Amino acid sequence: MKGSKTKKRNSFFRNLFYAFQERSVRSQILITFFSASLILACIVIFTTNILRGTITTVGESYQTNADLDKYLTLLSETEAAMESYMQYRTFESVDKYFHFEALSEEQAQKLRDKPSSIEVQQKEYIIKQLSYNYFNLSGNAIAARRSNSNARINTYYNKSVECYSFLKDEILSLNMMYFQSNARIYESNKASMTIIINASIVLMFSILGCAILLIYINISRVIQPISAISTVATKVADRDFDIELFNSTRQDEIGNICRAFDAMIISIRQYVDTIWEKAKKENELREKEIEMRALITDAHFKALQEQIQPHFLFNTLNTGAGLALMEGADKTCYFLEQVADFLRYNIQHPGHDATIKDELGMLDNYIYIMEVRFGKRYEFIKEIDEDALIYRMPNMILQPVVENCIKHGLKDITENGKIKIQVKVNSETNETDIKISDNGCGFDSELKEKILNAEKSDDTVIVKSSEINQNEHISTGLVNVIARLKFYFKREDVFSILDNPDGKGTTFYIKIPNV
Amino acid sequence: MQQNKKNRTLRFFIFSVFLVSIIVCFIVIIFNLAAIQSQSGTYPIPTTRRDYSVLITGDAENEFFLKQVYEGSTIVSNFYDSAIQYHIPDLKTQKNSMQSLFNYASYTNADCVVVYMDPDFEDFTPPVNSSMEKIPLITVGTYFPEISQVSHIGVNYAELGKSMAQESVEFLNGSGTIYILNTLDMEDFYNRTFVNNLNASLRDQEEIVIVNSKIHRNSGFSLEDDIRQQIASLGQIDLILSLSEQGTILAAQTVLDLNMGGKIKIIGFGNGYESDLYFEKGIVTELFKVDAVDIGKKAVQEFFEYTANGSANSYVTANIQLLRNRGEK
Q1: Domain carrying residue B247
Q2: Are A201 and B33 in contact (CB under 8 A)?
Q3: What distance in Å separates residue A114's CA from the closest CA in chain B?
Q4: Which of A193, A341, B91, B130 has the fewest beta carbons closer than 10 A?
Q5: pLDDT band for position A470 (50/70/90)?
Q6: What is the mean pLDDT of residues A388-397?
């Protein structure tokens, strides 16, 4: 039972706290200040009331004396008026007498009606009795004076004076009693007042301390997250994103700021990751570009090295062709022209792209030369889709592949060697498939792996190719072809080397996007 | 980690200060309320209500005696639903007339007046209340047969004389010299009865020498000198037996003057403050006194017997106390 009450109370305070926390920061600060002010105001009012009450009480300590003194003054005035009337018999004096007698009687009525065993109260009773007797006797004296009855005047006057004397003595005696008692009360009240004032000062300071603490705690609650946000913001400004998220549950603006800050940090982290990835990719591309440029430079270098030779050879061939024509050797002339065309293609399009048609034309030249050179040792079969001729691709791609077939695939073949060239547009993938196959000895799998891995590896192609050169000099052309294709189309799957399904020979498969 | 520890310490400190402040506030508020509660601007006494007011009055000379009467009447006042009023003029030198005291009783409408009647009083009118009805009067001291009174509480002087004589004989173990110091007015009937009975009781004691004081009222000497001369001239005195308050004081002063304190014993009579004082100092060896507290009780009892039955004992004998310096009564 007690536990459930405590739980309820705790729940109430928790709800109150949450309700407070859900308010805006402005409201929280205002509530804090208003609460503190309210507490202070209450305590000031409380203390003021206590002090006012205390001062009033202390002031009232002598109230009974004051009242009695007032009564004695009224009686004195009554007595003086009576004596004046006895002496001078004036209207004013009798009027004054009745006036003060009435006032005195009014005061006397407040005194005790009955005897009491308590001395002070008994004294009040005696004073009341004396007062009424005095009023009676003095009234009789006045009446006697009015009627000029001398015998009665003397009797009542003397008696009233005597009664007044007793009354005065008793009042003074009671006043003294009151005074002694009131003095004790006054001292006691004064001591209490001193205690109350001191206690009130302690109370004020305690409440002030509480109010300051309340303000401090609440303002700290508001400011602390801002301070944390500031620290985190400074870290973020210094590009340090390795920070703990706030995960605030607060419902106020601070909570909103914390959540927004968390979201911002997460967003920045993701953005940085994206940029990082992008930069990484760009870096890779840049590296590949550099690599490509190196290959091109290398090719150019080689071309330059060989430029003198082709030009010289080209001129010589043209001269030879002219001579053959003059001598009527038409076949020689045609051969020399084919060789010259082949060389011209090489010289005129170094490092550029060309249409598939151009590439096939150059390949025809090369095949003719090879046929003249090796006779009918190899059969070249071409299956060309005319629609594919317009698409562009890097130049000098097909010739090195065919050359590889002749030099490696069919190197040991003396007859029935076949090199098949298929060019076909794949409308589904929007690509042009170029397949160059032979029926030779096939491609050494280790070498194939090396050539393909040389391309996939992070190392530069140049280094790899030079390594390959040391082992397989001829493969350099393939590595170069693969690299240039990938670079040109910016794709990895543009070149593959496949073993023929019948187990004889190799198929080089080139995929050219139709752009 | 260190920051967390700091925060924890700060929180603990704040919480402690907060808690202490709240406790202090609570205590102070309770304390203040208690202090306020203890404060009072009015006379902090309960109220009692009685139906009768009994006035005890008399001359200032008998103040000590009347105070004891007042004490006695106060003891029984609760039982009789009465309040006791005590009125004695302030100055002993100011000789208030009996009439003045009665007038006071009249003006205060007392229901009963217990008055110590001094033999000097004369020509007075008994007190009446505001309805002009006579106020019941109970007298103590001198009996005035001419005034109407409910009761008179007096001493049995014959018995007192015998008691004093017997006490003196016992004190001296049957032999010795007794100086009887008599300052009483022998024209008074009661005084004469008192002295006669005393002398009659001592007369049979052959081994006791009795010396009566001789007061020469018109000798030109003061009473003190007269008594001192007599005592000094007597030589061997074992006991001074004083028959009045005045005599007891004189005897004590004379013994002290003659540096005979402790050598001459004094058996005195009196109800005054001074005789009590000499007795307490051991100068007066034994003191006969009227039991004033008992008189107060009896006076109230008589008044209420009168109220209830319309009559009371006209003469009531007051008890006599004997105080011995050995602490015996």
Answers
A1: 157-290
A2: no
A3: 6
A4: B91
A5: very low
A6: 88
Rounded-to-integer distance, Cα B312 and Cα B252, Å: 40
Q: A465: pLDDT confidence band, cut at 50, 70 and 90?
A: very low
Among A192, A205, A215, A216, pick the best mutation site for testing chain B contact (most B Cβ within 10 A).
Answer: A192
Q: B-chain residues within 8 Å CB-CB of A132?
A: 130
CA distance A489 to A430: 14
SS3 (DSSP) at B155:
coil
Nearest to A368 by CA among A386, A345, A352: A345
B189 and B199 belong to one structural domain: yes
The answer to whether position B32 is within a domain reads no
Confidence of residue B39 (pLDDT cuts 50, 70, 90): low
Coil/strand/helix, residue B8: helix
CB contact under 8 A, B21 and A188: no
CATH 3.30.565.10 corresponds to the domain A352-513: yes
Mean of the per-residue pLDDT values for chain A?
82
Of the candidates A121, A126, A203, which has its C-beta nearest B29's C-beta?
Answer: A203
pTM of the model as a whole: 0.58
Query: Which of B22, B35, B48 is closest, CB to CB, to A121?
Result: B48
Handedness of CA B232, B234, B235, B238 (dihedral sign): negative
Count of structural domains within chain B = 2
CA distance B225 to B236: 19
Find out whether A252 and A30 touch, Cβ atoms under 8 Å.
no
Three-point CA angle B63, B145, B217, nearest 5°: 60
Specify the domain boundaries for CATH 3.30.565.10 within chain A.
Answer: 352-513
Q: Are residues B244 and B276 in the same domain?
A: yes
Among A56, A67, A112, A126, the residue to mutate for chain B (most B Cβ within 10 A): A126
Do residues B127 and B174 share a domain?
no
